[in-house]
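User: quick one
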Amino acid sequence: MKRITIEDVARRAGVSKGTVSAVINARNSVKPETRDHVLEVMKQLHFRPQGIARNLRNGNQDKSIGIIIKDVNYPFYTAIASGVRDYANSKGYSLLIASSENNQQSEKRFSQLFAAKDIKGAIIAPLVEGTAEIEHLFKLKMINYPFVLLEDVSGIQANVVAIDNSQAIKKAVKYLMDCGHTRIVHFAGPPSSSHTEERIEGFRHAFSESTLAFHEDMIVSIGSRHEESYGNTLAYFKKKSRNEYPTAIVCFNDQQALAILTALKELAIRVPDDISIVGNDDISYARIYPVPLTTIRAPQREIGQRAAELLIRNIESSKLLPVERVLLETELIVRDSTRTITR
Amino acid sequence: MKRITIEDVARRAGVSKGTVSAVINARNSVKPETRDHVLEVMKQLHFRPQGIARNLRNGNQDKSIGIIIKDVNYPFYTAIASGVRDYANSKGYSLLIASSENNQQSEKRFSQLFAAKDIKGAIIAPLVEGTAEIEHLFKLKMINYPFVLLEDVSGIQANVVAIDNSQAIKKAVKYLMDCGHTRIVHFAGPPSSSHTEERIEGFRHAFSESTLAFHEDMIVSIGSRHEESYGNTLAYFKKKSRNEYPTAIVCFNDQQALAILTALKELAIRVPDDISIVGNDDISYARIYPVPLTTIRAPQREIGQRAAELLIRNIESSKLLPVERVLLETELIVRDSTRTITR
DNA sequence: AAGAAAGATTGAATCGGTTCAGAAGTTTTC
DNA sequence: GAAAACTTCTGAACCGATTCAATCTTTCTT
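Assistant: Done. Structure below.
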């Protein structure tokens, strides 16, 4: 089935392409009767102008940028997107959001789609193995709009705006140690995320800077999707007797923390009385969790704003700017899910 | 500053456009030395291929649809978007998300942007006054890709997938009446939303179908943005003496319900002991609200899926399909924020 | 060393619109 | 009633890539 073009309309209406174009663009240099006739023919033919052709001729005026996040349903990412949006809007850019849903195929598809649509630049929360892919895309297949990464992926030479994950976890662990906890455990995230690595790293570091000893079994991989984390938490505690329980858990993120909270409730383990919980991210709902969550706040809107600022600076610069890497500070937010231990 | 084209590269590298194109597309019909040289020149010139031109020539292969939601940070909309995404993916379409942030300008900009990018179709949660605008855009300015609306806007002749808002509120009110409540109030949403109208309508209807009398002051307009609803709730109760308090509030949506819950806590009004609260939407966090929320569930993912299904059916049909209007059923979810009244 | 085969490059046509100088037709002016 | 001034329309050129038949080079055969 062939596409109906402006030419088909022109032929059928007995006018020139130019006239049809004038009708489409509502130029008033067209006699009303002619216009109505052309409009009529367009309707008959189900004509639909192809924006891309118009855009090519007009030099692709519209200023738009894209963001690829990992999950539209996780407020952490939507908050970042809001930050991006605010800054982008103030500079006259429109933001298109794509969600990779933690799927590398999608990530790749979207970065190509952005190129096909001639987006001016993109902000990407990369999946870890995806990075090599992305670099590959950008290097070889010439999908080379400016971009900013939201994770500090090792090895890639690119603009990055992120938080210092290692520091964040350290803050959590240090705080718990200050509260007198000694049996601290880290419930780690999905192995596919670079965040997971960095956070484990930070956990280790916190111990090496303290007098407490680190053991491998303090790292428990339970994922971050609700069902998965919930199930793994249940399993973890069912394998242990009560006196083997840790007194504190440092979570991968707040989403995971909620699943843990739910599982603990089911197991009749009280928070913070029996176990203290520290989250990560401080999503907007963390404050209303069944137990309001002590967590490490990542400045989500600011991340978005800074990333947008950096991206747009790169887009609008005539020369190639040197790569930048900005790490934002996190902040410990103490709520009700942690308590001090008195010996 | 002129855009660098394939021609500039060709000239500078002393080859033809065809060769440069071959290099870009990594066709192996190019001698390695030539390729390296061209690549080098491209780097020097900061050449970046224009996807739009390529796309025009290739007949815009990529299948993508868009969705315009009102707020990326409200889980109700992201859940719908997920539903759309799932269905779209299963049919090979990519989903681009845009957030109008309740701003009509944005809504308009995005619908035009989608046209410029030659998106195949769109799903739109329209702002009420925006509807006339949208219709205008689609009728006159020829931005006429197929689209599906997520609200049943009166007057517009378009595909709609939505819930029956009036029914939903009726369910809430009936339930409260069955629980023995007589002093029921509706905290209405922002006047700019058609949802607001329909919900007020449903509230009225529920009374006219009962033995209880309706009074205008049972409708209290407090908005849905957190700060606004919170403040208005505080103000509402401060104006009243305790014996004038309603015994139940039907909320505009769950976001608003959370603000109300927060305000009531501040006022030391207990839920559900002093006042019962019924939300609307059943966003995923409603179950973990400080008081787990009794609410009317809108089948969010299903809304998304059905909308996507309808949209894609329209996109892929060769003839113009008749307009469809599907209203999905809601469901009362009873949790802890409501109680029965014993006289 | 000539002819054939394989490899590399060219360039005109193409995608579907927009633009604008100028042609054709119509109305106003004096 | 001829010139001037409008009003409508036309159609060739253009936007920036891709494609592919035709041509030019190089390598291989015998």
